[in-house]
Amino acid sequence: MDNKIIDESIQGQVLKFETKNTAGKKLFLESYGCQMNFSDSEIVASILTEKGFSMTQNFEEADLIFINTCAIRENAELRVRNRLNDFKRVKKKNPKLLVGVLGCMAERLKSQFLEQEKLVDIVVGPDSYRDLPNLIEEAEDGHKAINVILSKEETYADLTPLRLGSNGVSAFISIMRGCDNMCSFCVVPFTRGRERSRDPDSIIAEAKDVFDNGYKEVTLLGQNVDSYLWSGGGLKKENLSSEQQAAATNFAQLLEKVALISPQLRVRFSTSHPKDMTDDVLHMVAKHTNICNYIHLPVQSGSSRILEMMNRGYTREWYLDRMAAIKRIIPNCGISTDIITGFCSETEEDHQQTISLMKEIKYDYAYMFSYSERPKTLAERKYKDDVAEAVKKRRLAEIIELQRLNSGIKTLLGIGQVHEVLVEGFSKKSNEMLMGRNSQNTVVVFPKQNYKKGDYVNILATRCTTSTLIGEPV
Ligand code: SAH
Ligand code: SF4
Ligand code: F3S
């Protein structure tokens, strides 16, 4: 086997790569999955442009193709596989082309990709991007290059991401990596490893830097931002003395530090976890007008029995209490969620509980999925994926329809009100119209006049579509 397992101890070889001339080589980088994956791609682009690569939008002319992958559901993986077959055809014409798989599918499918299917030359997991220059060199020398080692410390804190495909107004900043929650349906703890928080000083510095470069909004990213905790040594809460805990920076404090950079900088964050979201965080959102009144709080199911099997760490009642806290502390807060239909053993009654919860809360927006069993997860090992595909899909269609109605009502309620909108660019349909979002994350469209990207404009909403408000500057 000529696969080279590169471990963290030989990262020093990166230096060797610097003497090699990569100038002029073109990198095509395509990303799938969540915002964290897109934010990782910006780290990858930063590392490789430092080494002399230039980015291309056209994979036919690339010397190196990287695909940053997602493993969250089976169809996410299928899409990546189809794409790899496209790249294989280009490689036939250009044998020197290198193809690499990055991100969440790397760990799971490393040997399949490299050996059985010979689809790729390089496989790199989410914690090993510093090793990329080294691995590319290995691949250029004809070796198969792989590093899927997950780290307990890596946060890429010192690297400045190259903002890819950004609108120049909003930037994403990762504040932590990995996840320790082990929700039974979820593959993320296996693909991204243990949870670790990033040094707040480096987060503030990055947020200041984007603001100085004209950005007006940052979104702080983590799989569970409420468990963010920085104690200096990167230790977990349970391993800290009470004095150390008191001196540590928690998520509410981090939010405040970022909000204080400038009142002109909007702050958003994702994802909040119902089991860990404290009133402190909600009070901090209420305290600073530039922290947006918007919370994404995934519920997954309205049935306490299913939530228990999902290992989510809360009940329906607990979740409703957190919702009540949001409504009490942040009046006029936009709320969105994630929901899974057809999890193992889900009955019609469980499904009806999800429906009744949705009717009660009336989310502004929801991301909805039918359950897809993932290898290695607790659910795969412990439970049977026993809800028929047709039933999963029918339940999914029902909640999508209900959410469509709820979203429509929510948008309608915005009519007649004045919304502070941060302009992100032209609207999809016309260059005479601008689009942006209000604090609650609803898209607002209005006539351009003399306004431009990055401006804050007060808009009186006069009409709407299901999810977009339309109005006039006031
Ligand atoms: N950390 C976030 C979610 C990350 S994954 C949280 O805890 O909420 C994004 C969403 O994908 C999840 O909220 C869930 O709704 C969905 N998801 C995750 N695994 C899934 C699976 N196996 N099948 C279907 N949907 C899944
Ligand atoms: Fe997955 Fe749960 Fe972690 Fe979210 S909190 S990433 S759903 S394990
Ligand atoms: Fe994100 Fe997909 Fe990985 S949702 S964390 S890219 S599995």
CATH class categorisation of the largest domain: Alpha Beta
Q: What is the CATH fold-level name of the largest domain?
A: pyruvate-formate lyase- activating enzyme
- Large-scale geometry: globular
Relevant CATH superfamily of the largest domain: tm_1862 like domain
* Alpha carbon gyration radius: 23 Å
Share in helix: 25-40%
User: How do the strands line up in the largest sheet?
Assistant: 1-7-6-5-4-2-3
Which hetero compounds are present in the coordinates?
Answer: S-adenosyl-L-homocysteine, iron/sulfur cluster, FE3-S4 cluster
Strand content bin:
15-25%
Low-pLDDT windows of residues: 1-21
Q: How many E-type strands?
A: 22
Provide key terms for this protein.
seven-stranded parallel sheet, binds FE3-S4 cluster, 22 strands, globular, binds iron/sulfur cluster, OB fold (Dihydrolipoamide Acetyltransferase, E2P), 3 domains, pyruvate-formate lyase- activating enzyme, 15 helices, binds S-adenosyl-L-homocysteine, five-stranded mixed β-barrel, single chain, 474 residues, Rossmann fold, alpha/beta
Draw up the topology in text.
Blueprint: E1 3-5, H1 14-18, E2 26-31, H2 35-50, E3 54-55, E4 64-69, H3 74-93, E5 98-103, H4 106-116, E6 122-124, H5 132-140, E7 144-147, E8 170-174, E9 176-177, H6 188-192, E10 196-197, H7 200-212, E11 217-221, E12 229-230, H8 242-247, E13 249-250, H9 251-259, E14 266-270, H10 279-287, E15 294-296, H11 304-309, H12 316-329, E16 334-341, H13 348-361, E17 365-370, H14 378-382, H15 389-413, E18 418-426, E19 433-437, E20 443-447, E21 456-464, E22 468-473
Parallel strand pairs: 1-7, 2-3, 2-4, 4-5, 5-6, 6-7, 8-11, 11-14, 15-16, 16-17, 20-22
Antiparallel strand pairs: 9-10, 12-13, 18-19, 18-21, 19-20, 21-22
